[in-house]
Design a protein that fits this description.
19-stranded antiparallel β-sheet; 4-stranded mixed β-sheet; Maltoporin, Chain A; mainly beta; 397 residues; globular; 27 strands; 1 helix
Length: 397
């Protein structure tokens, strides 16, 4: 269990500097303490012999600060935006777990200097930006400090007959998340523990997409081709554990990861209005991770979502359906949540009455399985029967 309260302060100030300039300042701060306890035990009922025992008590005090100073200047040909953003989190932990009692402190600092120019020439619009990002993570075991150049480009062109093209490309570092860096040790099974790696470095991610759009009375269609490359990808995997024996689920910086595919989004209105709308999203995707040892992990899937919608006078109806697919998530393959939902609403002036049902005739369902390359074979199939045919009723004003 855990308990915490988060007091937060959010300040925003904006001022016009003449006709063409604007300066804004935003500051957000929070300070709170979290008390977390976790107990899991297994024993032989006849003898009382302990199979495994996991007792963890954690008191964490966290102080966070986010600030941004931004300036915007309007030119005749476009808009120039520049600024500085800083975020800092300091976490002090008192921890009692499998490895004994410890006190440790971690600090996460990220700074971002940026400038961006946006403009339009006839049917062509653009946004070009450049920045510097500093990631500084410090713990008792390690200090990581790195500056990265972070460019961004957005180009768009309006074609004939309600068609358009849009290209985006960006490069940025991604700091390891707190669980990946944490020295906390959690026992998952009699011979399996989970722990972080304080020597992780940031990931460097390059993201690209090209989108074609077509809109008319009967069709709305988007085709988005995407590709991303992540250097020093943070990879979760099982290793032999020399400290506690058995296996450990932990993290490493792999060599790289790639993801590419195309997202096809379309809606068809056979009557040219919202009386009947068929919506389909199909996303064939290929993803790959190359670990530090050179092993290659690959997964292909077809993401999908289907919607049948109708509007008539003050009534509206929507039916949602999908076929869950497996995607990479650390050391596992996870399915997305299943859908088989229907919703009906009626609007009268400012009042909206709504009703519907989630997971018609079925429970919500989630599946997880370990990778074929994993040292540990793990499978779990969760069905929440209380969610089966869950009826909802709503009123909004």
């Amino acid at each position: 269990g855990s308990d915490y309260v988060i007091p937060k302060l959010d300040l925003y100030y904006s001022k016009k500097l003449g006709v063409k300039d604007e300066l804004s300042i935003n500051v957000v701060g929070s300070d709170y303490t979290t008390n977390t306890s976790e107990t899991a035990k297994e024993w032989v009922t006849g003898t009382g012999l302990s199979v495994y025992e996991n007792d963890m008590i954690l008191k964490a005090k966290q102080t966070s600060f986010v600030g941004e100073l931004a300036h915007v200047h309007d030119f005749a040909v476009g808009k120039l935006s520049s600024g500085y953003r800083i975020s800092r989190s300091s976490i002090a932990n008192d921890l009692n777990n499998l490895s004994g009692y410890s006190q440790y402190k971690v600090t996460y600092l990220e700074q971002y200097f940026y400038t961006e120019f946006a403009g339009k020439i006839d049917k062509f619009s653009y946004r070009i930006g450049a920045g510097l990002t500093n990631i500084h993570n410090k713990s008792a075991e390690n200090t990581f400090d790195e500056w990265s150049f972070t460019p961004k480009v957005v180009l768009a062109y309006q074609l004939k007959n309600n068609q358009s093209l849009r290209f985006t490309s960006s490069y940025k570092p991604i700091s390891p998340w707190s669980n990946a860096l944490s020295s906390n040790v959690v026992q998952l099974a009699p011979n399996i523990v989970q722990k972080g790696n304080s020597f992780l470095t940031s990931q460097q991610k390059w993201t690209n997409s090209l989108t074609y759009s077509l809109n008319n009375k009967y069709f709305d269609f988007n085709a988005n081709i995407f590709y991303s490359y992540t250097d020093r990808v943070i990879n979760q995997y099982y290793v032999l554990d020399d400290v506690f024996g058995g296996y450990a689920l932990t993290y490493e910086n792999g060599k790289y990861a790639q993801q590419y595919g195309v997202q096809l989004t379309g809606s068809y209105k056979p009557f040219g209005n919202n009386f009947l709308v068929l919506k389909v999203v199909l996303t064939p995707t290929s993803e790959m991770v190359k670990t530090s040892s050179g092993a290659v992990i690959k997964n292909d899937y077809l993401g999908n979502n289907f919607v049948l919608a109708s509007e008539y006078k003050n009534f509206s109806l929507q039916y949602q359906f999908n076929i869950p697919t497996y995607s990479l998530s650390g050391a596992f393959l996870n399915t997305n949540e299943n859908k088989n939902n229907i919703f009906i609403s009626y609007k009268h002036k400012n009042l909206t009455f709504s009703t519907g049902m989630y997971w018609i005739g079925m429970p919500s369902e989630y599946k997880t399985k370990s990778l074929s390359e994993s040292l540990v074979d793990y499978k779990i199939h969760t069905q929440i029967m209380n969610n089966k045919s869950m009826f909802v009723l709503g009123l909004s004003y």
